[in-house]
Automatic annotation (TrEMBL):
Domain of life, per lineage: Bacteria
Sequence ranges assigned to domain Response regulatory in this UniProt record: 2-116
Transmembrane segments: none
Gene3D superfamilies from the UniProt entry: 3.40.50.2300, 6.10.250.690, Winged helix-like DNA-binding domain superfamily/Winged helix DNA-binding domain
Pfam assignment, any one: Response_reg
InterPro entries: CheY-like_superfamily, OmpR/PhoB-type_DNA-bd, Sig_transdc_resp-reg_receiver, WalR-like, WH-like_DNA-bd_sf
SUPFAM superfamilies xrefs: CheY-like (SSF52172)
Native source organism of the sequence: Streptomyces badius
Residues annotated as domain OmpR/PhoB-type: 124-217
4-aspartylphosphate: modified positions: D51
DNA-binding residues (ranges): 124-217
Keywords assigned by UniProt, alphabetized: DNA-binding, Phosphoprotein
Endpoints of the signal sequence: none
Name under which the protein is recorded: Transcriptional regulatory protein CutR
Amino acid sequence: MRVLVVEDEQLLADAVATGLRREAMAVDVVYDGAAALERIGVNDYDVVVLDRDLPLVHGDDVCRRIVELGMPTRVLMLTASGDVSDRVEGLELGADDYLPKPFAFSELTARVRALGRRTTVALPPVLERAGIKLDPNRREVFRDEVEIQLAPKEFAVLEVLMRSEGAVVSAEQLLEKAWDENTDPFTNVVRVTVMTLRRKLGEPPVIVTVPGSGYRI
C-alpha cells in the first residue's frame, strides 16, 4: 500500500510516516498543501493522510482536488478540532474518514488499512494462495501453518503479489507499491527482495518469475 502523509507539524508527520513504514507501507511525506497537490499529480496513492489546516494550500482544497480528479485515492482527514460540525464538513468535502488529534497510532493504522482495502476489489481479511496465508492487520505470514518472519519490505512485496490473485506484477509496479519516491528506479532492490522472500518462503518455490514481465504467485 502506498500512502501520502500531508502534515505541517513535521515531527508528527515524520513520526506517522515512520510508524506506517514499520507496518510495511510505502510512505511519502510533505508538509504543505502545495507540495501535496504536486505529489498527487505525479504518483498514485492508495490513501492520503491529510491534515486539514495546511499552509500554502488548505487541506480542504487538496481534498476537493482529489475528488475532482476522480482518483481512487482515499482520504483520511486529520484536524485538531473534534467538533461534530467540523467532521461533517470534512466528510462533505469528499474525505472518506476523519480522525481528530490527538489520536492513537494504532487507530490511525487501522483506519489507513481499512481505507486501503477500499481502493481495490474487496478481498478476504486474510489472503490465502499456494499454501501461503497472509494477515495484513496482524502482519503475520504462514506457510503450511508454519509462521514465517519477514522484513517490512518483504511483507509488502508478498502482500502486493497475493492481492494480484495470480496476475503478473511488474518490477515497476512492485517498486511503486512497496517503496517510496526516494528509491532509485534503476536499483535492483526489487529483484534482491524477491530473492530473499523466495528463500524465506521455502520449497517448493511459490513466486514465479515471468521473463520480461514480472512476478506472480
